[in-house]
Amino acid sequence: MKVQPRSRRTAGKDAYHQLREAIVGGQFHPNERLVEASVAERIRAGRTAVRAALVRLDQEGLVTLEKNRGARVRHVSDREALEIEEVRAALEGLLARRASTRIRPEDLRELRQLITEMRERVESDDALGYSELNARFHQIVWAAADHPTATRLVGSLKSQAIRFQYQTALRPGRAARSLREHEAIFDALKARDEDGAEAAMRDHLAEVLDTLRWAIDGNPRTSRWMPG
Predict the structure, then answer these.
(1) Exposed end of the chain (fewer CB within 10 Å): N or C?
(2) Do residues 159 and 153 lie in contact, with contact meaning Cβ atoms separated by under 8 Å?
(3) Could you tell me which of 111, 128, 130, 107 has the C-alpha nearest to residue 120?
């Protein structure tokens, strides 16, 4: 296998972070074997470092280590995918409530700009670009909430969520509805409305859960894994 030169983005990152990003970003697929030697060559790291990274990723639930069989990217079942989204909704509702009384003016300005850019992505039918902005929107809310434990937990769930996308971006009208949901979250945060912020976030993630059910029920999983 030809080794690609390391990019600026990966240069300086340890084996754990490089491998984690590759899994979360869909470069490895569910149930794919992670052979130490091949992974080490691919990310240009030592096998000892790769072995330690796999142990850590197993503890996070991103990798499954099997005795005498090596490591695989962990497969998430339909049921677990739904359960992850249910737990995520509860945690992000809490974070939105807390953020409403703690968010800074500069955070609100960034959220407003993100919504403008998200609207442009919807109009240009750029699902991947919209997804990236969506992720940033949620990260700002998490940071504003100032609740490290909940942020750590929801971040772990979000990492898993990226791997089990079922072409949810292809649901007709979903992007436009998602934009309106984010606008409602922003309005509640701007008004410093605790109940409104929590309700808007829960409503948004209830729609995410409903879309996931739609994808599971009517659309078979494909090899294309869209970031969530």
Answers:
(1) N
(2) no
(3) 130
Domains 15-73 and 78-218 share a fold: no
Residue 225 has pLDDT above 50, yes or no: no
Tens of pLDDT, residues 64-110: 998 888 899 988 888 988 998 999 999 999 999 999 999 999 999 99
CATH architecture of 15-73: Orthogonal Bundle (1.10)
- The enclosing H or E element of 73 equals strand 70-73
What are 190-201's pLDDT values in tens digits? Answer: 999 999 999 999
Q: Superfamily for 78-218?
A: GntR ligand-binding domain-like (1.20.120.530)
Spell out the domain ranges in the chain: 15-73, 78-218
Lowest mean pLDDT among 91-95, 113-117, 144-148, 221-225: 221-225
Q: Cα–Cα distance between 157 and 202 in angstroms, integer?
A: 16
Give the model's confidence band at 118: pLDDT under 50 very low, under 70 low, under 90 confident, else very high: very high
21-45 b/e with 16+ CB inside 10 Å = b? ebbbebebebeeebebeebbebbeb
The set of residues, in sequence order, having a beta carbon less than 8 Å from that of 2 and lying 6+ positions away, is: none
Packing angle of the helix pair 78-102, 148-163 (nearest 10 deg)? 140
Distance CA 156, CA 152 (A): 6
Residues with Cβ within 8 Å of 41's Cβ and at least 6 positions away in sequence, in order, are: 1, 3
Residue 183 vs residues 35, 80, 178: alpha-carbon distances, Å = 44, 29, 9
